[in-house]
Write a structure and sequence with these properties.
alpha+beta; 6-stranded antiparallel beta sheet; 7 helices; 15 strands; 25% strand
Length: 313
């Protein structure tokens, strides 16, 4: 998920720098857990934060997603509080762009250890645990898993069906992690531990299918790497309407219409301009059509762009 054009004003996050001095602490360590999508950054110098990093956050997250910028700002405030009070704090499940920018920014904080967990290695939505290295000495148990089963053989349900059913119980979206579809078997969902019992007792139907929920250990999650199909296209520009129409095999006018309806996201953030420029690593999703990732970009002799597009199946 590379930073893309579409900058937010740097002043949006400058207030989060209050109390932080200007310094930079390099990344010391990064580790990964095979079951919890663990990313850990421990530091030992006094807590400091570079103001320039705040500007970077505002630029890296698309300007029209002010909510995401505020989320990162809130996480920085959590880090300062966790360090000064020597306590461990946990975020809700974060979207991929907020997760990425938060972890990149937390790398620059001292006297802080940050651990991101989503329940399994490919998890997109993760929670971050933040604490002083002397206090956050082990991986917190902040992600739980549920198995949702029912007779889906003749009435298959989509990701949206499961999500809608779970949110219909009154749970906020940020309390839910990924939803792993298992076709006729049902699905497995990641959730905050404190809501496990509530969902088990409240979720009784997905779509028109009666279901039952049981708690399962994270090691029992049944996931597979996403299936993809790669192909190349030559375009005159790297605009989202050009690459999106080529990637989703639809006319540019249809994609522009989807953008105007708020159905198109880049790196999980909604966009409103069809001339948004894409770069390698960007992920484009369109409601009802799936998503694709921008791969390698080369310039042709005629000044056009040969772009690798990776379509998620």
């Amino acid at each position: 998920m590379a930073a893309t054009i579409g900058f937010a004003a740097p002043w949006v996050l400058k207030k989060a720098a209050n109390g932080f001095a200007r310094s930079y602490v390099p990344l010391i360590n990064s580790t990964f857990s095979p079951y919890k999508t663990l990313r850990s950054f421990p530091f030992t110098s006094p807590l400091t934060f570079p103001a320039s990093g705040l500007c970077h956050v505002a630029q890296a997250i698309r300007g029209d997603d002010k909510h995401a910028i505020e989320e990162v700002k809130h996480i920085l405030e959590m880090a300062k509080r966790a360090s000064s009070r020597r306590e461990v704090l946990h975020t809700n499940f974060l979207t991929p762009p907020v997760l990425k920018e938060s972890m990149l920014t937390l790398e620059k904080l001292a006297d802080i250890r940050a651990v991101a967990q989503g329940g399994y290695p490919q998890a997109e939505r993760c929670r971050i645990s933040i604490g002083h290295p002397d206090v956050l000495t082990s991986d917190p148990d902040v992600v739980a898993a549920l198995s949702v089963t029912g007779n889906f053989a003749f009435q298959p349900c989509s990701h949206g069906d499961y999500l809608g059913a779970i949110l219909g119980t009154g749970i906020a979206r940020e309390k839910l992690g990924d939803i792993i579809l298992q076709e006729e078997k049902g699905a497995q969902i990641l959730i905050v531990p404190e809501l496990v019992d509530f969902v088990i007792s409240s979720l009784d139907k997905v779509g028109n299918v009666s279901v039952s929920c049981t708690k399962i250990p994270l090691i029992s999650l049944d996931y597979e790497p996403p299936r993809t199909q790669s192909f190349k296209t030559v375009e005159a520009s790297l605009r989202v309407d050009a690459l999106g129409s080529a990637g989703f095999k639809i006319s540019r006018s249809k994609l522009v219409d989807s953008i105007s309806k708020g159905e198109v996201r880049v790196n999980w953030s909604p966009i409103s301009k069809n001339n948004t420029i894409l770069s390698t690593g960007d992920v484009v999703s369109v409601s009802g059509r799936g998503r694709l990732k921008v791969g390698e970009i080369k310039t042709t002799r005629k000044g056009k762009f040969e772009v690798e597009l990776i379509r998620y199946l």
